[in-house]
Task: inverse folding
């Protein structure tokens, strides 16, 4: 791949950012960051969650202003005041969360904010036909076909991503930023994206590819800039490096893979049993279909799959947030198909939800209140309808200590805690009750290494204690390391299963793309 | 990507929590600003604002009778205000107190007339219970529309206000009209079915005791009970509350019911304590003023009682101010609205200044 | 059959339906601008009342209906600006701000009216707009009273509906407004000015609602009364939902409400046995039915009522 690089001495770099510093209050997101991307190069921006990749790119696309540092495009110093300026300078960004108006058609999305000269001089009444023709032509040239008259909301995620890329190209992007573009794609769709990206680069477009997946970066990029805690940890040529070296730069120490699940299961016996479970949503779509599932004592069952194939719904029906349309759920042999979340909690179901801020915690309320929210009416914490303040405080203090939630002030609002500490609180709340069943959805998402290791360790401890655990995750590494068994979900169904500890990861990947084993 | 909150941000959030949101300070500042604007307007009319203020409070607080009138006016404002405050705490924008007061009033009169002659120890509580039930029923219509059909309670409660007022008007012109009366009103309640007068020579009735009872009970329930905790949790984050096993639908309905019951009780005390019969103009907008009272009282029952007392004093004094100095009483309505605007403007301004001090916020947390 | 169509009472009913629907039509049309841009405009009532008062006062003072009309629109727009400051810049709760503004305008107009005309004095009056004379056209059954019996303001209002439809549904401006209401962050990345667009939309909302309010004072009656709008701004909010925030839908919904109100006025002349109050509550009850029937948030812009994010917006 390095062979396709144009000679560096001929052209100035397409993008050169130097000494960039961006601080949010006292938190420094970028500190003296340098980044250089040549025309026609695919340049990876790599780093852990929170390393400052997205922040740096938001500065390049005009969404925020750096506190210090300079940006040059093709050797010319520029100031990127706002997204409009970035657009005019030929910088296009495909955000991780798409910047599309779902209720509008592709052509309407493309017409929004189009400068007069690109809109064919039509200022007041947009010329959708003309835009549609241009989009078609661009799409054919770059293998990015979309129907310009389709509503964006009706397209698949991959289709929406094509619209985003086309939108950038249509506005004349010569620098294209892709923020974690494969996070929402199946492996096959990712391969197709890589081909498009390569052909764009061959035409001279500079591509900045943000990712934290090492194998993708190794496969598709020319050079790599690694960020760690807001600083550049290194700049490497892909052909001359290895995954191990990159990983070391990313984490700054020897990578600790998730603690492996090695101890054999002691106890047996089924805790959770789903029979023919199905869920139809209010639009009549089948979110879950014919799920048969069992989890035993001291077992971690992994649920793998590309986001949006029914994993969240599976978790919700198990904890009782959604009622099954058909089928049944049993806990310890007793039916709980129609039980409310409160009843399930009382019977030993614990939930570590996917979205800490929105689903797990009440940010405006105190640590103590959040610690007991699921048990507020239990005799331990309430008498005659009144809350027992001393017991609640005692419990919360113990929890904060055992799970190392910092800072340890139980009267502080939970919203002011860091993400990792919030997750520790959620885990602690779920696990201190010694639940029979734990449903953990993406429990380590967005956490740093220390917090991740802590969360994984606690899950394994609970397994040793006899709990049945359903672990839903998009991270194959996490699943492979922790799970006794992995099932793969695709379009609301379980299409495959493997038993550990030795998993065939390639086969699991194929199943995630919908190919049954 | 997780972004840790800066220590400075913590301190600011803390200050805002303790000093602005939970403390009465912001309410006092808003009041001061609103009074300032009022003073300027009075000044522009060529009247001395201090004199106007003196006349106003002399009328409402300077005599036994004035105090009694202020206390009488406090009753409906506080009862409806506490009901609305509890609604707001649960995240329900119930603007329907006005209609619920009317429904409570007509229920009171209906039961009082129907059961006339029975021992008052039974009938009076029955009247209060009927008023609360009727108000709660009326309020839960909006609750059911919200929970079952997703209809925004803001608009449904406003519509229900109009329906209630006209429905009551129909009853007063028709089936429940006092026989032989040319006016749209029910029969007068028997003497023993009226709330007792507390201070002879004034109109002060036992409704004020009801208010004190309700305030204390609501304050304790909201802050110390499991039910109040669940209500607050649902108001802050219904998703998390649901996930924690709290019956969000039930709590939301409870918020509607509480607001309706307390507003109905306000209707009861107006009928049984002040007018002694149901009339067409039972409430001159108590239900709407109570919204401001609830906000100014920081949606905490004790605060609501204080805010209600203040607004009652202003309203009682305003007519004297108009007749003595020629300052239109509508000025008080302006000041009341300005209090709310300054209150929310201030909270928002404080947050905005906080963000300016930090110059920039952390980017949206991304998953 | 023909006799009904030419009956003067029926003709009067048709004419009144159109006339009575105009204030809420204009207010709801204003609401479309604000809500499509993502701002929940609970302040329509206050904007109407402000326009109603300003239109009356300025007409009274200047003797010119056109001056009053201009004043109504300007004052309505200024109330829109006030709502914008709180709802957009200060990111306050849009429902609370709207209600507070409604109460503020009710107090302020009553205060100023009392200042201008002392209590006890004779009720001030102005000469309202007169219906245009279409000659024989006005005598066509059904169409005559429906279309050819109104004053210039009514035709101007219908022209505004057409203009709004072109602007909102066909032009770049409408596309921008919708984008801003659906996804303000995306709109910013596309180079659109979110804050500016929302301000302009809310002010346009105020101008139209102010005009709707002026209808009551300087077209329908020639009078101003305290709280003259009597909840029409809130009905306009309901109409927005019924009309799916689309100018054409709004016209249909407003006519329905105008007809209900006209029916109730006629019913006072024609004893029917139905209690009068039942007819008075008809529009309100209809709104409740509509809200129960159409999930009220369906089709609403995704960011409606939400404060803007603090970053990445301009």
Result:
């Amino acid at each position: 791949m390095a062979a396709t690089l144009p000679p560096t001495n001929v052209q100035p770099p397409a993008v050169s950012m130097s000494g960039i510093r961006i601080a949010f209050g006292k938190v420094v997101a970028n500190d003296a960051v340098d980044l250089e991307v040549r025309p026609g190069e695919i340049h990876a921006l790599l780093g852990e969650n929170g390393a400052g990749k997205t922040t740096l790119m938001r500065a390049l696309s005009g969404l925020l202003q750096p506190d210090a540092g300079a940006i040059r495009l093709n050797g010319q110093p520029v100031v990127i005041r706002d997204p409009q300026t970035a657009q005019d300078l030929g910088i296009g960004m495909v955000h991780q969360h798409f910047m599309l108006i779902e209720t509008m058609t592709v052509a309407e999305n493309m017409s929004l904010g189009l400068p007069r000269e690109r809109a064919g001089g039509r200022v007041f009444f947009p010329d959708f036909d003309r835009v549609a023709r241009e989009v078609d032509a661009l799409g054919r040239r770059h293998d990015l076909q979309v129907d310009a008259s389709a509503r964006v909301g009706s397209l698949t995620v991959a289709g929406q991503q094509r619209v985003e890329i086309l939108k950038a190209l249509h506005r004349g992007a010569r620098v294209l930023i892709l923020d974690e573009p494969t996070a929402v794609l199946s492996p096959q769709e990712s391969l197709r994206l890589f081909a498009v990206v390569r052909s764009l680069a061959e035409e001279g477009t500079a591509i900045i590819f943000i990712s934290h997946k090492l194998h993708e970066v190794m496969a598709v990029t020319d050079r790599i800039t690694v960020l760690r805690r807001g600083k550049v940890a290194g700049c490497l040529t892909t052909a001359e490096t290895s995954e191990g070296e990159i990983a070391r730069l990313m984490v700054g120490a020897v990578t600790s893979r998730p603690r492996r699940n090695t101890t054999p299961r002691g106890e047996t016996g089924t805790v959770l049993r789903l029979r023919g479970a199905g869920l139809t949503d209010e639009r009549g779509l089948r979110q879950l279909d014919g799920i048969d599932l069992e989890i035993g004592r001291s077992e971690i069952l992994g649920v793998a799959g590309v986001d949006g194939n029914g994993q969240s719904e599976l978790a919700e029906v198990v904890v009782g947030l959604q009622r099954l349309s058909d089928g049944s759920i049993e806990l310890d042999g007793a039916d709980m198909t129609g039980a409310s979340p409160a009843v399930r909690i009382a019977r030993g179901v614990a939930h570590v939800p996917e979205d800490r801020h929105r689903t797990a915690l009440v940010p405006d309320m105190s640590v103590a209140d959040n610690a007991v929210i699921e048990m507020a009416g239990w005799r331990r914490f309430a008498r005659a309808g009144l809350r027992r303040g001393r017991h609640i405080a005692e419990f919360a203090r113990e929890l904060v200590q055992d799970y190392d939630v910092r800072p340890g002030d139980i009267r502080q609002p939970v919203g002011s805690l860091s993400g990792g500490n919030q997750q520790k609180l959620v885990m602690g709340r779920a696990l201190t009750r010694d639940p029979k069943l734990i449903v953990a959805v993406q429990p380590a998402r967005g956490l740093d290494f220390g917090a991740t290791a802590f969360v994984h360790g606690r899950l394994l401890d609970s397994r040793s204690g006899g709990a049945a655990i359903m672990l839903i995750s998009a991270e194959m590494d996490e699943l492979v390391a922790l799970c006794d068994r992995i099932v793969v979900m695709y379009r609301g169904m379980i299409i495959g299963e493997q038993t550990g500890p030795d998993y065939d990861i390639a086969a699991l990947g194929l199943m995630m793309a919908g190919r049954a084993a | 990507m997780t972004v840790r909150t800066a220590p400075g941000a913590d301190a600011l959030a803390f200050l805002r929590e303790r000093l602005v949101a939970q403390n009465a300070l912001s309410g006092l500042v808003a009041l001061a600003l609103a009074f300032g604007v009022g003073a300027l307007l009075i000044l522009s009319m060529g009247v001395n604002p201090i004199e106007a203020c003196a006349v106003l409070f002399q009328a409402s607080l300077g005599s036994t009778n004035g105090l009694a009138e202020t206390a009488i006016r406090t009753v409906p404002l506080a009862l409806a205000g506490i009901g609305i405050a509890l609604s707001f705490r649960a995240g329900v924008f119930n603007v329907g107190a006005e209609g619920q007061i009317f429904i409570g009033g007509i229920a009171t009169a209906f039961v009082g007339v129907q059961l006339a002659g029975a021992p008052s120890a039974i009938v009076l509580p029955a009247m209060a219970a009927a008023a609360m039930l009727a108000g709660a029923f009326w309020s839960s219509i909006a609750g059911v529309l919200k929970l079952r059909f997703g209809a925004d309670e803001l608009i449904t409660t406003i519509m229900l206000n109009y329906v209630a007022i006209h429905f009551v008007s129909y009853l007063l012109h028709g089936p429940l009209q006092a026989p032989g009366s040319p006016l749209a009103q029910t029969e007068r309640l028997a003497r023993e079915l009226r709330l007792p007068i507390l201070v002879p020579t004034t109109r002060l009735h036992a409704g004020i005791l009801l208010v004190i009872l309700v305030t204390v009970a609501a304050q304790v329930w909201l802050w110390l009970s499991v039910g109040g905790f669940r209500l607050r949790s649902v108001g802050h984050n219904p998703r998390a509350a649901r996930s924690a096993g709290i019956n969000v639908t039930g709590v939301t309905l409870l918020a509607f019911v509480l607001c309706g019951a307390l507003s109905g009780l306000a209707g009861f005390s107006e009928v049984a304590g002040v007018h002694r019969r149901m009339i067409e103009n039972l409430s001159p907008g108590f239900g709407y003023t109570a919204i401001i009272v609830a906000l100014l009282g920081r949606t905490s029952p004790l605060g609501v009682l204080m805010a209600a007392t203040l607004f009652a004093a202003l309203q009682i004094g305003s007519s004297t101010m108009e007749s003595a100095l020629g300052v239109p009483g509508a000025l008080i309505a302006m000041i009341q609205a300005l209090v709310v605007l300054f209150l929310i403007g201030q909270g928002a301004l404080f947050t905005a200044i906080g963000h300016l001090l930090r110059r920039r916020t952390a980017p949206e947390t991304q998953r | 059959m023909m006799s009904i169509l030419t009956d003067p009472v029926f003709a009067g009913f048709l004419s009144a339906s159109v006339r009575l629907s105009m204030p809420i039509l204009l207010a709801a049309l204003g609401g479309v601008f604000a809500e499509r841009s993502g701002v929940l405009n609970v302040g329509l009532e206050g904007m109407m009342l402000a326009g109603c008062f300003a239109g009356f006062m300025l007409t009274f003072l200047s003797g010119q209906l056109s001056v009053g009309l201009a004043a109504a629109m300007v004052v309505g727009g200024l109330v829109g600006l006030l709502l914008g400051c709180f709802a957009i810049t200060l990111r306050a709760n849009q429902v609370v701000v709207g209600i507070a503004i409604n109460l503020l305008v009710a107090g302020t107009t009553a205060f100023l009216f009392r200042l201008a005309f002392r209590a006890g004095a004779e009720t001030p009056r102005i000469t309202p707009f007169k219906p245009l004379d279409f000659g024989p056209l006005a005598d066509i059954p059904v169409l005559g009273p429906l279309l050819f019996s109104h004053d210039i303001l009514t035709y101007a209002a219908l022209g505004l509906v057409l203009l709004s439809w072109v602007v909102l549904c066909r032009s770049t401006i409408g596309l921008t407004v919708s984008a801003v209401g659906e996804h303000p962050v995306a709109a910013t990345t596309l180079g659109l000015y979110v804050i500016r667009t929302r301000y302009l939309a809310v002010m346009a909302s105020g101008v139209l609602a102010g005009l709707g309010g002026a209808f009551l004072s300087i077209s329908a009656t020639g009078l101003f009364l305290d709280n003259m709008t009597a909840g029409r701004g809130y009905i306009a909010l309901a109409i927005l939902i019924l009309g799916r925030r689309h100018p054409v839908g709004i016209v249909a919904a407003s006519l329905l409400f105008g007809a209900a109100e006209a029916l109730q006025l006629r019913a006072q002349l024609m004893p029917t046995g139905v209690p009068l109050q039942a007819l008075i509550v008809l529009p309100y009850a209809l709104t409740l039915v509509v809200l129960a029937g159409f999930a009220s948030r369906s089709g609403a812009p995704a960011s409606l009522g939400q404060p803007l994010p603090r970053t990445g917006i301009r």
Q: What stands out?
A: Chain C touches chain A through 22 residues (CB under 8 Å). Residues 8-36 of chain C form the longest helix (29 residues).
